[in-house]
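wait is this the right file?? whatever heres the structure
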């Protein structure tokens, strides 16, 4: 029985290591963060949205009914008469939309024509959580339609079934990143951007994880098989060894970036061809230079990541230890992926923006959306930072390979290289 217990304890000790625990902890933290975000979604959805309301139809009972429903479910931050002034007031208050009830609203309904509600959306981001408030306002407009339908049925004021079911229509204009997009709602824009907001970061994350784990595992195998020691003892400058390894990795990264961008070009053309809205009509297309910038951002991200992986792999004792060192790269790739899926970079808190900006893998994930809306400043700043990060990572790798610790390993300061109690 004692032998069985000893075998069980031995297996538990070998399996329950930092390598097996940390991935579970990371996934638990990520899921807990997602749960907190979902809870925040529910809280935001339960709050009254901030809007502006301009009522140009002052005499109609239908207009008064619509106004009453809107006031009961929203926080009105502007109630004047000027549309431009209303948009500024709503934007300053962090509001969602400016609703305008035109002066012919009641006359149209009385004449059995749908009354139009003009909606000027103010869109701040394209993340999943950024479209909550606009969905709430959409629900309130649906409630206006329902209330008018109920009164029409009670009064028997119309025999037109279509009119009774849909007494109002929306005229929508969305303002997003200094672009005015007429006839399109924030939900339609988010739907159009959601595919690349999810697929592109996913592809970037998988590229970083696959290439990074390959480099780290390769370094671990070289140390385990003693081929790294042999290479380091050859009459070759160690800076050349690092540059040669990184050069090969960079060529592979460039090839991957080229294939990726070629596929993305066909993907974007197909997406724009099948989109519910004509994005080209609003200038939401990528030019050749935009694809070049995305490719540069992706290449620098892969290069910096590979240099970082080479440093981590050089610190590994063997192949098994190298596997655990892939976890920091995994976490750095997954954090911006989940964060940008939930929220737009511009709507994140300043501290989280700084954290994500410092992660080089973040920039290619958000480059295409930024370039589509002509936000070149953030993309260029990201490329400059990635170039600096890659240069520092390469320099650190060269410095590390010049140290004998790659062969001799670390030892305590003041300790004998021959071991405790040894005599020279």
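ok assuming it is, sequence goes like this
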């Amino acid at each position: 029985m004692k032998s069985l217990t000893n075998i069980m304890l031995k297996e538990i000790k070998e399996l329950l290591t930092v390598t097996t625990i940390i991935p579970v902890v990371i996934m638990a933290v990520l899921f807990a963060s997602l749960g907190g975000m979902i809870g925040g979604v529910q809280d935001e959805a339960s709050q009254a949205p901030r809007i502006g309301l301009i009522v140009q139809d002052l005499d109609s009972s239908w207009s008064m009914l619509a106004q009453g429903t809107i006031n009961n479910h929203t926080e009105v931050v502007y109630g004047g008469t000027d549309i431009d002034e209303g948009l500024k007031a709503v934007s300053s208050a962090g509001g969602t939309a400016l609703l305008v009830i035109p002066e012919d609203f009641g006359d149209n309904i009385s004449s059995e024509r749908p009354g139009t509600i003009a909606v000027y959306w103010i869109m701040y981001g394209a993340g999943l959580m950024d479209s909550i408030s606009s969905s709430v306002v959409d629900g309130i407009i649906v409630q206006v339609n329902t209330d008018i339908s109920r009164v029409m049925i009670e009064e028997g004021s119309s025999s037109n079934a279509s009119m009774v079911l849909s007494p109002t229509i929306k005229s929508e204009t969305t303002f997003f990143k200094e672009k005015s997009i007429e006839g399109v709602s924030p939900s339609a824009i988010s739907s159009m951007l959601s595919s690349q907001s999810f697929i592109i970061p996913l592809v970037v994350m998988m590229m970083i994880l696959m290439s990074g784990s390959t480099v780290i595992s390769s370094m671990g195998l070289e140390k385990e098989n003693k081929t790294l020691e042999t290479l380091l003892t050859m009459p070759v400058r160690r800076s050349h060894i690092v540059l040669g390894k990184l050069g090969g990795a960079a060529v592979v990264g460039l090839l991957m970036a080229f294939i990726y961008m070629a596929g993305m070009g066909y993907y974007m053309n197909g997406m724009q061809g099948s989109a519910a809205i004509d994005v080209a009509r609003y200038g939401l297309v990528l030019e050749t230079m935009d694809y070049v910038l995305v490719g540069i951002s992706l290449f620098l991200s892969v290069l910096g990541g590979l240099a970082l992986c080479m440093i981590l792999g050089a610190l590994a004792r063997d192949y098994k230890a190298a596997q655990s060192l892939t976890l920091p790269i995994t976490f750095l790739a997954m954090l911006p992926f989940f964060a940008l899926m939930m929220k737009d970079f511009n709507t994140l808190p300043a501290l989280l923006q700084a954290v994500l900006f410092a992660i080089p893998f973040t920039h290619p994930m958000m480059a295409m959306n930024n370039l589509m809306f002509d936000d070149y400043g953030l993309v260029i700043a990201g490329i400059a930072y990635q170039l600096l990060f890659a240069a520092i990572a390469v320099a650190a790798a060269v410095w590390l390979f010049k140290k004998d610790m790659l062969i001799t390993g670390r030892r305590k300061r003041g300790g004998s290289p021959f071991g405790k109690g040894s005599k020279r």
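Residues 409-424 have pLDDT under 50 and may be disordered. so i think its the right one actually
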